[in-house]
Amino acid sequence: MARTLINLPKTAKPGEVIAIKTLISHPMETGFRPGADGRILPRNIVTEFVCRFEGEEVFRAELFPASAANPYFTFTWVATASSRFTFTWRGDAGFEQTETAAITVA
After folding, report:
1. Range of 14's domain?
2. What pLDDT is recorded for position 64?
3. Sulphur oxidation protein SoxZ domain location, by residue (predicted)?
């Protein structure tokens, strides 16, 4: 399981634009680098990131081998209602990690 950091305000006013920041620590491997034995190491990257709010997709990113080792995303959202965000990272070899974070809009 990879380590994740999610930063968003706990509360917001209706209509307020908030910044959401996420980071996942993942041992990215491009699939082009030789290992100690000279054989090419298999590709192991995060290939997709999706953020949903109440089941509705609000942000999506597709990643490729040139991506950073620890993908960091920052994006904005207009506060509409209190609920939970669901953040999902998917990658090679069946990697999938999901985290949640709540926000109160009042």
Report:
1. 3-30+43-105
2. 86
3. 9-101
Q: Cα–Cα distance between 72 and 94 in angstroms, integer?
A: 21
Question: pLDDT tens digits for 39-83?
Answer: 999 999 999 999 999 999 999 999 988 778 899 999 999 999 999
pTM score:
0.91
The percent of residues above 70 in pLDDT, for the chain, comes to 100
Q: Is the backbone of residue 65 left (phi > 0), alpha (psi -120 to 50) or beta?
A: alpha
State the pairing for strand pair 96-105/11-12: parallel
Query: What CATH number does the domain containing 88 carry?
Result: 2.60.40.10
Assign 3-class secondary structure to the chain.
CCEEEEECCCEECCCCEEEEEEEEECCCECCCCECCCCCECCCECEEEEEEEECCEEEEEEECCCCCCCCCEEEEEEECCCCEEEEEEEEEHHHCEEEEEEEEEEC
